[in-house]
Amino acid sequence: MPTTTTTTTSSDGTTTTVTTTVVGDTAAAAAAAQPPPASSGETVAPAEGHVLFESPAVTYTPFAPGGTVGGTVAEGWEPVKAAFSNNFATGKEKDAQLVIKVDGETVVDLWGSSASSSCTNGPYTGDTVQNIYSSGKQIETVVMAILVDRGLVDYSDKVTKHWKEFGQHGKDMVTIADVMRHTGGVPYFLKHETSTPGCSVKGKKEEDYYILSPEELRDPKCVDRAVENSVRQPEGELTRQYHSLTRGCLVDGICRRVDPKGRSITQFIAEEICAPLGVTEYLPVITEADMAKINIAPIGPPSSMFPYNMEFGPSLLGMGDPIFGEILSMFAPDSAFVQSQGGTNALHNPETGQMDGARAALPEVLATPLTSAFTHASARAQTAIYDAAYISSVGKLISKETLAKVFANEVSAADGGLVGKVTTLTQGGLAVYDEGLFGSNAESVKGFYGWGGWGGSMTCVDPKRSVTVNYCMSGMGSYLVGDPRSFSIFEAYQAVMKAKGK
């Protein structure tokens, strides 16, 4: 098969050599994929049996099968590239990036795009940013660890030691560790005027919650008032309630009060994490002025009826993966998450009345600081940060002594905000990748700590094997944390590590 070699230079000055190869049964089959213009890379043909129906305009894959994959892999890591490429061949990906670092060496740096790709300022590359939703919560663990390392807070501190007003309405006993483990008591902003601490939220309506607009989220005083005036939720058996959109609000409030310079979490990230590491593609906020300069791959679900026909519909009929039925219960019209909108209407689509992941690309959302959900980043940028913080550059951001604290005191609990899944989190806020969170897929992610984002992104560190992995994408899947795309990649990763004796 014909090959060419192209040398490119990324924004951080790293030189990458990419070998371009036409793959698939024939060159004609590869051309049928019709990938968009992109950086040099391999053309991935649609897998057999995955060609799009042209008329009527229906697909049985989430995105257009086939595409272009570029980047590099070290010797022995080819199976990971094959798994990554197969996701494009089978129509599971729109755009995606994957970076794996082992013992400080980048062994996988891949990106790919399909015919469904549509970026704002050029083709999709390894430096393109996309929304990472809750994978952005990982940066909150780094910020808090730095604050602990500098003696400004301790995980055992009550939040009221640093933020007195926080303790109102039953939140006086909440600790920093509670906040990081999603037992901080503010999974949404439940009004004290109509509720009491620990009360049942059954029957609560939209008017019983403070629901902030993007403009209000940009006003720290407004956010603080919503946090302070909220009653603690929940109490009883399910004390852990996933803070899907609000944990960043709590960490930001603490950061502004203990940082000697009074900086917000977004300022702290820029000045104390990204600047020292030379990272430019980690963006909690993208201003209107910057939108014209930054290449963004807008995130969103498939435009086809695929999720309804192939995932949720069969689940409701007792077929397929039962997780989809559980997810539907989370988004039931009378659920606390839907009624509260998670604390903000930024993602609420007024036309459908539902939460819409594609709204993350709206200018007013891009410009809104909410680290728990609105961050845009590349896999390279995330890997640079978390490898430096937790793996290969210990001491540059966080001392070895504090790092031990970050991973200490694991607590397992059923999470009422994640359909009762039993999650295990350290006091530093990192989840243990185990059976409680990932079920039958736990073996593929064994050894990792971290979190994932709505739609499928994953950010992971394995301190014992000195590994950092980051996977992000613009085409959203339907699972809660991780999905078949990333699990297939992790299965290949585990096989490679085993073959290398690691």
Provide key terms for this protein.
single chain; 502 residues; 3-stranded antiparallel β-sheet; 16% strand
Description:
Helix 10 crosses helix 11 (323-330). Strand 9 (348-349) and strand 10 form a beta hairpin. The protein has an 8-stranded antiparallel β-sheet with strand order 3-4-6-5-17-16-15-14, with helices on both faces. A 3-stranded antiparallel β-sheet has the order 7-11-8. Strands 1-2 form a two-stranded antiparallel sheet. The model is unreliable at 1-39 and 54-58 (pLDDT under 50). The protein starts with a strand and ends with a helix. Helices cover 29% and strands 16% of the residues. The chain is α+β, with helices and mostly antiparallel strands and 502 residues long. The chain has helices spanning 27-31, 78-89, 137-149, 176-180, 214-217, 220-228, 247-258, 265-277, 288-291, 306-316, 323-330, 336-340, 363-366, 379-390, 400-406, 435-438, 484-499, and strands at residues 3-9, 15-21, 42-44, 67-73, 95-102, 105-113, 130-131, 282-283, 348-349, 354-355, 376-377, 411-415, 421-425, 431-432, 449-452, 458-462, 467-473. The radius of gyration is 22 Å and the shape is globular.
